TrEMBL record:
PANTHER family xrefs: FOLATE GAMMA-GLUTAMYL HYDROLASE, PROTEASE FAMILY C26 GAMMA-GLUTAMYL HYDROLASE
Keyword annotations of the record: Hydrolase, Secreted, Signal
One GO CC annotation: vacuole
Native species: Lupinus angustifolius (Narrow-leaved blue lupine)
Major subcellular location class: secreted
InterPro entries assigned: Class_I_gatase-like, Pept_C26_g-glut_hydrolase, Peptidase_C26
Name this polypeptide is given: folate gamma-glutamyl hydrolase
Length: 345
C-alpha cells in the first residue's frame, strides 16, 4: 500500500537523521551540551556594538502622595511610582532606579549619575517641591546632553505639561481639556519628519491604524492647543509637534512632541497603560495597542543604550527598584494596579 511505503520511508529518514546526529560531533542534542562544551562558540556570536551600552538604567521620578488619597498610606512625605512605568521600562530591556522627589539634592544627584535616561510620569502635582525637582532634573538632563552624553528623557502626561510650563517659563500656559479616561486616535502632523523620533520604527500599517482607531489612552484635564504651542517662541523652537488629538468636545491638543536638539520626547497620552494597567475602563488592550506600548518603550531604551554613562555595578544594585516591593493598589480605586510606595526620606 502506498501509505505503508511512505511511512517506511519516513522511518528510514528519521533513523538516518538520528544516526547522523550521533555520528556528527558538531550537532549536539541539548542534553549532550553541558559541561565540556560552551553553549555557543564565540566565533558564532559577533561582538555587540561596543559604542552601545547593553545594561541601561532608567531613573523614574516618584510623585507626591500614595496614588489613592491616603487609602494606602497617610504618612507625610509619601510618594509613589505606578508600577506600569517600571514594567514598561523593563519590557524593553532596562532596569529602573527610583528618583524619590523629596530626597536630598545630593542623593538625587548621585542617583542621576547611575542612570542612562529619565522618565517623568503622569500625576497632578504642578507646584511646590515636585515642580522644582522636575525643573532641576530637566536642567541637568540638558546639561548632560550639552556635555556630550546622549541622555534621553520621556515625559508622560503631567510630565508633558510640566515641560510645557518649564520651557515656556509660563506657569499659566496650559488650557483645560475634557480628556479624562478615554482612548483616542492620534493625528500625525502633516509632513512631520518622524525620522529619529519615537515613531520611526513603528510599522507603517500601525501608524495608519493609530490615526483611525482609538489605540492610545488619555487621562488629563489640561493640555495645550497647537495654536498656543506654536505661538510660544520658546516652545516651538525647543519642540517639534509630531501629533495632535481631539478631546470630547472636539478641541484639538498637542499630543506628542520631540525636541529638535535633545533626545527628549513628551507624550500627553499614556503609552505605558495599554499593556500594564487594568483598573480604568477604556484602556485599549488589543494586540495593536500592546504593540504601541512596546514600540514606545523600545525607543526610550534604545536611546538610553547610546548613553556613555557606565555606572558602578554595586551602586546600581544598591539603588535599583528591586530594593522595594510593589503594593497591589487596584482594590483601592486610584486607577493603578500596582504602585511602589516610598516613605519620607
Ligand atoms: C488615612 O486617613 C483616612 C481618614 O482619616 C482613613 O480613612 C484611612 O484609613 C487612613 N489610611 C490608612 C492607610 O491608614
Amino acid at each position: 500500500m502506498p501509505n505503508d511505503a511512505v511511512f517506511t520511508l519516513f522511518l528510514i529518514a528519521i533513523f538516518n537523521f538520528l544516526l547522523s546526529v550521533q555520528s556528527h560531533p558538531a550537532i549536539l542534542l541539548p542534553s549532550q551540551r553541558h559541561r565540556n562544551s560552551p553553549v555557543s562558540s564565540p566565533a558564532s556570536c559577533p561582538a555587540p556594538n561596543p559604542s552601545l551600552y547593553y545594561r541601561p538604567i532608567i531613573g523614574i521620578l516618584s510623585h507626591p502622595g500614595d496614588s489613592a488619597s491616603g487609602r494606602i498610606s497617610n504618612a507625610t512625605g509619601t510618594s509613589y511610582i505606578a508600577a506600569s512605568y517600571v514594567k514598561f521600562v523593563e519590557a524593553a530591556g532596562a532596569r529602573v532606579i527610583p528618583l524619590i522627589y523629596n530626597e536630598p539634592h545630593s542623593k538625587l544627584q548621585k542617583k542621576l549619575d547611575l542612570v542612562n535616561g529619565v522618565l517623568f510620569t503622569g500625576g497632578s502635582a504642578k507646584s511646590g517641591l515636585y515642580f522644582e525637582t522636575v525643573r532641576r532634573i530637566f536642567k541637568k538632563i540638558l546639561e548632560r546632553n550639552d556635555a556630550g552624553d546622549h541622555f534621553p528623557l520621556y515625559a508622560t502626561c503631567l510630565g508633558f505639561e510640566l515641560l510645557t510650563m518649564i520651557i515656556s517659563k509660563d506657569n499659566n500656559i496650559l488650557e483645560e481639556f475634557s480628556a479624562l479616561n478615554q482612548a483616542s486616535t492620534l493625528q500625525f502632523v502633516e509632513n512631520a519628519n518622524i525620522e529619529g523620533t519615537v515613531f520611526q520604527r513603528f510599522p507603517p500599517d500601525l501608524l495608519k491604524k493609530m490615526s483611525t482607531e482609538c489605540l492610545v489612552m488619555q487621562n488629563h484635564r489640561y493640555g495645550i492647543s497647537p495654536g498656543k504651542f506654536l505661538a510660544n517662541e520658546k516652545l516651538s523652537s525647543f519642540f517639534e509637534i509630531l501629533s495632535t488629538c481631539k478631546d470630547e468636545d472636539d478641541k484639538v491638543y498637542v499630543s506628542t512632541v520631540y525636541s529638535r536638539n535633545y533626545p527628549v520626547t513628551a507624550f500627553q497620552w499614556h503609552p505605558e497603560k495599554n499593556t500594564f494597567e487594568w483598573g480604568v475602563p477604556g484602556i485599549p488592550h488589543t494586540e495593536d495597542a500592546i504593540q504601541i506600548t512596546q514600540h514606545v518603550a523600545n525607543f526610550l531604551v534604545g536611546e538610553a543604550r547610546k548613553s556613555i554613562n557606565r555606572p558602578v555595578a554595586q551602586e546600581v544594585l544598591d539603588n535599583l527598584i528591586y530594593n522595594y516591593s510593589p503594593t497591589y493598589a487596584g482594590k483601592y480605586g486610584g486607577g493603578f494596579d500596582e504602585v511602589y510606595i516610598f516613605a519620607q526620606v
